[in-house]
Amino acid sequence: MPLTPIASAPQAEPEKRVRDRGATEKAILDAAKALLAEEGFQNFGINAVARKAGCDKQLIYRYYGGLNGLVDAIGADLGTWVKDRIPEDTGGMFLLTYGDLMERLSLLFLQALRDDPLMRRIVAWEVSENTEQVRRLSEARSKALATWLERMRGSLAPPKGVDAIAVNAILIAAIQHIVLSASAGGQCAGLSLKAAKDWEKAEAALKRIVRGVYG
């Protein structure tokens, strides 16, 4: 009597891989920022970002719409950079005067630039490259700083007769230059900027300048 073949159990369908879009978007953005910090715009492209992120380049088009969309996302991320590195929490410091506010902003901005190689790159590009991508990043950074200052300022006003816009522009430019000079050569105009005590001297000088103008 022939044996009836035993029907094999139905094969289970392979479990569908669930993509974590949020994690993928973050990986792409982090890879793009790291690539910019390391190599600048010269080698910044869809293929290079995809390789660094370990993903298919089509995902960059899907999630960011291409390279310009990715640059815009980096620009938007600069707003988070300002919020994270230059917090609105005063850390126990009472901001009683406009001078208090500018002293805090100046010191936090100095430290934030020292800690962030991508932001240093962006600052350097602002004065050396006039491209659409650089302008987008520069405008995003400037807008984020201006928004921070406006929220923190509240009713605080600079002393009468002081052009705060001009003074603050000079302060920010000085901070940017000293950090870039330190990064490139460890000094600025004869001031060594290698050891912690060197930066303490720089911070003390910065505070004196702020207080000299704003009291």
Automatic annotation (TrEMBL):
A single GO molecular-function term is: DNA-binding transcription factor activity
PROSITE patterns given in the database record: HTH_TETR_2
Q: Which UniProt keywords apply?
A: DNA-binding, Transcription, Transcription regulation
Q: Which residues bind DNA?
A: 45-64
Task: Fetch the InterPro entries from UniProt.
Answer: Homeodomain-like_sf (IPR009057), HTH-type_TetR-like_transc_reg (IPR050109), HTH_TetR (IPR001647), Tet_transcr_reg_TetR-rel_C_sf (IPR036271)
Q: What Pfam families does the record point to?
A: TetR_N
Q: Where is this region: Disordered?
A: 1-20
Q: Which domain of life is it from?
A: Bacteria
Q: Where is the HTH tetR-type domain?
A: 22-82
Q: What is this protein called in UniProt?
A: AcrR family transcriptional regulator
- In its UniProt entry, the species of origin is given as Rhizobium metallidurans
